[in-house]
Amino acid sequence: MRKYMDNKKEELKFENSMSNSTFSDEIQGNSFAPFFDMPTCDQQGGGGGDQKGFMDLLGIPDEYTQSLLDWFPTPSSTTTATTTTTTTTTTTTMPPQQQPQEQPLPESSEVLNTPATPNSSSISSSSNEAANGEQIKAGHEEDQDQEKTKKQLKPKKKNQKRQREPRFAFMTKSEVDHLDDGYRWRKYGQKAVKNSPYPRSYYRCTTTGCGVKKRVERSSDDPSIVVTTYEGQHTHPSPVTPRGSIGIMPEATAAGFGAMTSSFVIPQPQYQQQHHHHHHLQQHPYMYSSQLPLNISTSTTNLNSSSFPSFIQERRFGTSSSASLLRDHGLLQDIVPSQMIRKEPKEEYNG
DNA sequence: CGGCTTTGACCTGCGC
DNA sequence: GCGCAGGTCAAAGCCG
Fold first, then answer.
1. 3-class SS at A214?
2. Which residue is nearest to nucleotide C16 (CA to C1')?
3. Closest CA relative to residue A53, chosen from A26, A74, A39, A75
């Protein structure tokens, strides 16, 4: 179906890696664990990885780590994963759990460099851009000064520093850029990335009211790696797999780990088996973003109990609606663990 | 015909 | 203030 994916594939046929993109820079700068050689989509398997290390980075207590490890069985033992120990110190500060779109995220959530400015106020209601999509802005009309020749662009927001939803990214080894995570996305833009031969694509969740966005770009450093960055929290269950949440995940929760959970689901062994022979498709999601999923936030302390579990709960993979699973490529199964990496403020736009 | 991608223009933040 | 780069808009076009 999605022919566009195919196109993508075409257009992005692997080439030699080149210089580095911003992303790569960030990543490299923080040295992340090497990727496993996942046989891209057709062969599943994947790699194990240093989940433990990952958990550590997340500040997840062993108990959870343990369970997570269960969720992340290491299929092929292996690999390279030498785990770099580079830790991302900064990762700890997370925004307090919040209702999706209820309150503006302090910029700090993004990283820590930017002092959580007091100006946070500006962002009108949080619902601003992330939540309702950018539609809201349409309302204003104050600045007409802009000639807006061809398109009438929305009035610009005043001096409010654009606030962003927390984001986290995953690096996936895949031939396709747009990984099917069970949600429906509409591409709304594509831009060339500086120092990278690969473009960055921008997607928005098509569900009305859900302002989750994601950016997808291929690492120029390793063309086989796709970096998917989620921003925002889904306010709804996956359309593709109604049962995806198997009821375990209340909306709030879903929203919480939001982008991540919803988008990246830890496979549930049982489920997988039940439905597919694809049970070997275990993924190892990895985030390297400075900001952890909302739920995990705030303090390493509560991070765990309430948040993490929920994280593991929603397993979309292996659900019956494996529409996604059945696809040949671009599955999150290809997600490869790496380490969380702090994004450089510089590179990262904070809004 | 609806849903989605494509794509150039426009907006915005930031560093110089 | 200028220019750059990232992010977004929306018309046009494609496709099932």
1. strand
2. A1
3. A74
Report residue A343 as tokens.
């994004």
**Smallest CA–C1' separation from A138: which nucleotide?**
C9
Q: Which residue has the tokens 């007091």?
A: A118
Q: Which residue is nearest to nucleotide C14 (CA to C1')?
A: A4
Degrees (nearest 5) of the Cα angle A260, A66, A304? Answer: 50
Contact A69, A60 (CB under 8 A): no
Cα distance from N-terminal residue to C-terminal residue, chain A: 35
A247: which residues sit within 8 A by CB, 6+ positions away?
none
The pLDDT, as a whole number, for residue A188 is 92
Contact A212, A258 (CB under 8 A): yes
Q: Which of A21, A1, A15 is nearest to A191 (CA)?
A: A21
Does the reported pTM lie above 0.70? no
pLDDT the model gives residue A163 = 57
Q: Kindly tell me if the per-residue pLDDT of A338 is higher than 50.
A: no
Per-position DSSP letters for A216-258, written without gaps between them: EEE-SSSTTEEEEEEES--SS--SS-GGGGTTTS-HHHHHHTH
Distance from residue A330 (CA) to nucleotide C16 (C1'), in Å? Answer: 21
Predicted confidence (pLDDT) per residue in A158-188, tens digit = 344 555 667 777 788 877 777 777 888 999 9
A79-99 pLDDT, tens digit each: 222 233 223 333 333 333 333
Which residue is the nearest neighbor of C9, CA to C1'?
A153
Positions in chain B where some atom is under 7 Å from a protein CB:
3-15
Q: Which residues, 6 or more positions from A329, have their beta carbon under 8 angstroms from its beta carbon?
A: A5, A9, A40, A41, A42, A174, A175, A176
